[in-house]
Amino acid sequence: MSRAWRLVQSVTAACAALGLVAALPMRAASEAQPFNDPYPSTYKPLPSPPIVLSGATILDGAGGRINAGEVLLDRGRIAAIGKSVPRPAGALVIEAKGKWITPGLIDVHSHVGVYTLPQTSLDAKSSDVVELRDPDAADTWIEHAVRSVDPGFSRALAAGVTTLQILPGSSDLFGGRSVIVKPVPSPTIGGMKFPGAPQGLKMACGANPKEAFAGRNLLNSRQGEIAEMREAFMEAEKYRQQERERDHPGQSASDELRNQTLAAVLDGKILVHIHCYRSDDMARLIDLSREFGFHIAAFHHAAEAYKIVPLLVSSGICIAAWPDWWGFKPEAEDAIRENIAIIDAAGGCAMVHSDIPVLGEHLNLEAAKAAGAGRRLGFSLPPERIIRWITSNPARALALDDRIGRLATGFNADLVLWSGDPFSVYSKPEKVFIDGALVFDSSAPRPPSDFELGRTITSANP
């Protein structure tokens, strides 16, 4: 009996004893409260005439499957879904027999736009992913660094991705605020921002922060990391109280902005996404969240999540992971391929993420690899189950599960028409819709980004 299988048995038994095996209900998207965004979205949906896709195998993103089904898109929304749907006057009917339909894919952890392709290095000369002046960069917003013409966006769109969360890097304890975007062509980030989407705060624990700041004598141990985090949240609590009392002491602008971010976390207005590999680190961060009363939306990378499944499931925390990254750093030395499937089998919220831009073009195949590892352990993982790892579960972690991630009446009409089973290496997206508009068609020429236009070299000689 393999170590992984013994672990599955013990985890499943523990979850059953705690009554955690049944899937957790979807967390209400309203849990993340709106905030006043000084940089509002300027995104405008494209025109979207009524469209019926007919005859396809439909995965609704919530565990349902309809064979030979139909979907009606109208006015940017899913207007109907089932075996047969109405056909409004003038509707375009797309025959999709033999093809598959899924919700648009959601990449919950992307750095597209700040690791601009073609990527030649990860240093400050070519990357704006992290601000390293201090372990606490909670005052920064990654949207102020995103280059919207990065060709990585068009590549993600062509791979069926319709929503991305762009996160800061993981060298800081508090990396700053995230931004959620639609990968549509735009000369500015405002034209890509998902209207009304809540921000996230990127945090990090473990090796990355202590290694990044040890040489500057700012941080060099895990106990130091927790102490710094506690101090920052204590200051944020004081700031909240002062705001309530209209008492503003002489803080520096930087401290004020940091406290604004952390106070918004404590108020539930900003979601928390934490880079964390080891199970003991994740458990410590859960203790920290309970001490200060905030909720962790997701642990990212989470290589040892399988060791603390009951704790993660009972805490309602999602995990975003790779299917097979192992051993590239000490924190990943105890990773197993079955990690994502084990979380899912216990009723937890499992997700597949990209992190590096190139993987954002293969989220469906990354999910297929994770499912393959789970099937080898004996788990039943049909397509309608694993599609949740890259659709409805990420929507939940982003508090957008009332708008995207599922094909249901009233939801945003973000969907992908695949040439076949989306978890087959032989299948490709044929058409991608965002808000009901066709934004990618594999049969149409693809407009190049600024980086791909090239230059015509003319000879100086006649």
Mean pLDDT over all positions: 90
Q: What is Rg?
A: 22 Å
| Relative helix content | 25-40%
Q: What's the shape? A: globular
Question: Looking at this structure, what is the CATH superfamily?
Answer: Metal-dependent hydrolases
Structurally, how many domains make up the residues? 1
From the 3D structure, determine the CATH topology: TIM Barrel
CATH class: Alpha Beta
Helix and strand layout, with pairings?
Elements: H1 3-17, E1 51-59, E2 65-74, E3 77-82, E4 92-95, E5 100-103, E6 105-110, H2 151-158, E7 161-166, E8 174-177, E9 179-181, E10 200-204, H3 207-214, H4 222-244, H5 253-266, E11 271-276, H6 279-292, E12 296-301, H7 309-315, E13 318-321, H8 339-345, E14 350-352, H9 363-376, H10 383-386, H11 392-397, E15 415-418, E16 429-434, E17 437-441
Parallel strand pairs: 1-4, 1-5, 6-7, 10-11, 11-12, 12-13, 13-14
Antiparallel strand pairs: 1-2, 2-3, 5-15, 7-9, 8-10, 15-16, 16-17
Helix pairs in contact: 4-5, 4-6, 8-9
Q: Describe it for me?
A:
- The protein has one domain (3-41, 104-405): TIM Barrel (Alpha-Beta Barrel), CATH 3.20.20.140.
- Helix 2 links the parallel strand 6 (105-110) and strand 7.
- The protein is globular, with a radius of gyration of 22 Å.
- The chain has helices at 3-17, 151-158, 207-214, 222-244, 253-266, 279-292, 309-315, 339-345, 363-376, 383-386, 392-397, and strands at 51-59, 65-74, 77-82, 92-95, 100-103, 105-110, 161-166, 174-177, 179-181, 200-204, 271-276, 296-301, 318-321, 350-352, 415-418, 429-434, 437-441.
- With 462 residues, it is of the alpha/beta class.
- Helix 4 crosses helix 5 and helix 4 (222-244) packs parallel to helix 6.
- The chain starts with a helix and ends in a 21-residue tail after the last strand.
- The strands form three sheets. Strands 1, 2, 3, 4, 5, 15, 16 and 17 form an eight-stranded mixed sheet that branches. The chain has a six-stranded mixed sheet with strand order 8-10-11-12-13-14.
